[in-house]
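cache lookup: miss for this entity combination. No prior model stored, computing from scratch. Input as submitted by user K.M.:
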Amino acid sequence: MVGIISFGCYIPKYRLKAEDIAKANGSSNDSFAGLGVTEKSVPGIDEDTITISTEAAKNALNAASIDPKQLGAIFIGSESHPYAVKPTGTVVAQAIGMGNNYMTADLQFACKAGTAGMQIIYAMVKSGLIEQGIAGGADTAQAAPGDALEYTAAAGGACFVIGKDPAVSINATLSFSSDTPDFWRRQHEKFPAHGGQFTGEPAYFHHITSAAKNLMGKAGTKPSDYTYAIFHQPNGKFPLLAASKLGFTESQIKLSLIVTKIGNTYSGSSLLGLCAVLEKAKRGDRIIMVSYGSGAGSDAFDMTVEKAIPVLKGHTIQDYIQDKIYIDYSRYLKFTGQI
Amino acid sequence: MTVPKTWRRIPELYNLQGTKCKSCSALFFPGREVCVKCGSISLEPYRFQGKGRVVTFTIIRSQISDPEGENIDIPAREIPYVLAIVELAEGPMLTCQIVDTPEKDVFIGKQVDMVFRKIVEKGKRGVIQYGYKFR
């Protein structure tokens, strides 16, 4: 069996309220009411995808006392890698003490690059190329001032050590991909652009539901077989709708819905939802996770909890959600380098 | 800081790696080539755990000048920030920033843990230097 040995998450401490964003843009609170997000996490001035990934990776290692030199590969997925040329993976690997004998490359596939990394590590372990490795997704999401994305674009990330004899086995994984231009960022552009409502039905919903159906077809399962479901969380509304379309109940996805408290952490989004579930899951629980990355594609995972999952006290997702400092809009602009 | 110097300091900045004297077990951060306690030149790398306490601190409110005349994006944008001397649990002391903590909540004796952060970012073209801060 190959799957998740341990996990770790990290969410920056700063929060910006949606009502402050609306106020700065001369909008009413109705402008964000439908998103189901009331506040979002904001990275500190000195935080980026590398520092967030490092903290999450350290937490994953500490949770199960894993020797970082035993990790044969590291893949970090993000759409906000600090360098255009120079890998995030080598900085994180050095910071967590992996030594030099590891494989790495940075991944980019909008919000699903982190789950793509999990699939790569899973395949490498399953093929016998490495004994174990670490994959993660993290972002300091960008949004242009005044864009609807500004209400949700947040910061955070999670990392997973994947190997043999796991706490959570990955029974099956697959992807559903197509050339769908719903959201993109051109070279050298600071902020992404998107197709507005086009990001919904032909993009998010089509890929999430197709990947989930294909996975359940492959695994021979149905929605009621799962204790928990996790879908990518661009806002508080989409994952609920996706669940409903597929026949999952609200109680199956409720635990994973952290977007309402911290916003959309892009490559960290579905992975942080998985962290929230793993912190509560018990032996025998079956979990389905489906990410979504614009451009577009979904990675789906069918997982079973095999034994007690190590949870790092003081560094749980709930700890990070509750440990917060509110900032106003002008500080937010300063923190994110816009002034 | 030049690129080679930044690179040489990576184990110190990323991993809190100092040295331990093989003769008298004295610990040093940053690492030393010669033990100042017993004079031995036989020292080995030693990684500190990243736990400590605030010995003293100050608030930096004015922008630092850059001797190389380059545009330092960080820490200029961080002003005001807390600069402290932290005593590591193993003994040695270091100077570092205290982050994610309102000024009023920083006090002498406060227990702090290492976090990994951007230290210096020179404009949009330079290498980003990462390393330890505490919170």
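stored under new cache key. Chain B touches chain A through 21 residues (CB under 8 Å).
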